[in-house]
Write a structure and sequence with these properties.
Elements (H helix, E strand, L loop, with lengths): L3 H23 L1 H33 L3 H26 L4 H8 L3 H24 L7 E3 L5 E7 L3 E6 L4 E5 H6 L3 E2 L7 E9 L5 H13 L11 E3 L2 E3 L4 E7 L4 E9 L5 H17 L54 H9 L2 H4 L2 H9 L5 H9 L1
Length: 373
């Protein structure tokens, strides 16, 4: 049997220990340490809760992004609650905090406005379901990749260039996003081929369709593919689109089984088209330009003064029958007499012929008599 004096001694020691702990807890260091211990306990509790509810939430919630958001919310909520409990146990009063921060409410509102906007847009993204984790999407600037993660604040995209792109949800909702993996992964692509008017159009269409069918990633037949209320043929289809200035435009439309390598599939189809049209009676057209010159087009002259062109005259200038250069000055007398004696074809314009008739000759005889004089 324990003696009374022993029990009294143990009780006194426990009382002194409790007083010492109370004095330590009442100090600033003790309060901080107690809050840290409370947060550490909250972290351990959050890990336990995540393991406890993780699998049931994943089984009941079909969308992975929503399930991950719920798990993150439980983790953050548990840690936050433990922090608040630790602050309350140390005597912290939240009313004092609210009164003290009321002065800075406007500044804090301005600073937190983008963050709050990202949170709200994140909720809309999770609710509207424009894309899901694992979907292949394309942004309006041409960036293509897979959705790696969707949080309340941002969306993480793993691009095809093996890089991560983190986009705030506020900016993500303002962009045009193309989802290639939504419901049906089959994607239709278009290739335009321009052939000449002399080509065999029926043969060209047949060869182009055959070129697309020979690619493994292209759907070569089967039931029609339904898009909304419309149905489209599943096999490659080449149609005469329009009559262009340089040739006949043929448009090939084909369906790709998976959207993950669209650029490679298009390159393979283009290669097959080029190889098949090379040996056929089909010529791929390219732009042509036909230039027409008439009497008002002038004379194209190449060279400089050493080639007989007056100095200052440009190529393409019409010859002046009165012997005026580009600057409007008269030529010397010898050049004037040579111009006057030239035949209409040598003068290069009807004005030269009028000058000869005005001289009073008008026939070869008159010209010879003038030369004798």
């Amino acid at each position: 049997m324990v003696r009374p004096e022993v029990l009294a001694s143990i009780g006194g020691r426990l009382t002194r220990l409790a007083d010492a702990f109370g004095a330590f807890a009442g100090s600033a260091v003790g309060r901080v340490l107690f809050v840290i211990l409370s947060v550490a306990a909250g972290v351990l509790a959050s890990k336990f809760l995540v393991r406890l509810i993780g699998r049931p939430v994943a089984r009941r919630v079909s969308r992975q992004s929503v399930a991950q958001t719920i798990v993150r919310g439980v983790r953050v909520g548990t840690v936050t609650l433990s922090l608040l409990v630790g602050l309350w146990a140390t005597g912290f009063r939240f009313t004092d905090l609210l009164v003290g921060t009321a002065v800075f409410s406007a500044v804090i509102g301005i600073i937190l406005a983008p963050l709050v906007g990202n949170f709200i847009n994140g909720v809309f993204i999770l609710a509207d379901q424009p894309f899901e984790i694992g979907d292949m999407i394309e942004l309006e600037n041409g960036t293509t990749g897979f959705v790696e993660d969707i949080t309340i604040r941002y969306t993480k995209i793993f691009t095809l260039d093996n890089t991560f792109l983190v986009v705030p949800n506020g900016a993500m909702r303002e962009r045009d996003v193309t989802n290639y993996s939504a419901e049906d992964e089959r994607t239709r692509r278009t290739i335009e081929v321009l052939v000449t008017y002399e080509s065999d159009i029926s043969e060209a269409r047949r060869l182009i369709e055959r070129a697309a069918r020979d690619c493994d990633a292209v759907i070569d037949g089967g039931p029609d593919i339904r898009v909304g209320v419309a149905r489209y043929t599943a096999s490659p289809d080449c149609r005469l689109h329009e009559f262009g200035d340089d040739g006949i435009l043929l448009r090939l439309r084909y369906w790709v089984k998976k959207p993950y390598k669209l650029a490679k599939v298009q390159s393979d189809v283009n290669t097959q088209i080029r190889e098949r049209l090379t040996d056929a009676d089909v010529e791929m057209a390219y732009p042509h330009r036909h230039l027409v010159f008439d009497d008002t087009s002038g004379i194209a002259r190449v060279g400089g003064p050493e080639d007989g062109r007056p100095e200052g005259e440009r190529a393409g200038d019409k010859p002046d029958p009165e012997g005026r250069g580009r600057g409007g000055g008269r030529t010397d007398g010898n050049e004037e007499s040579e111009t006057a004696d030239a035949t209409p074809s040598e003068a290069g314009s009807p004005t030269g012929a009028d000058d000869i008739d005005a001289g009073g000759a008008g026939d070869p005889a008159g010209t010879e008599s003038d030369g004798e004089r």
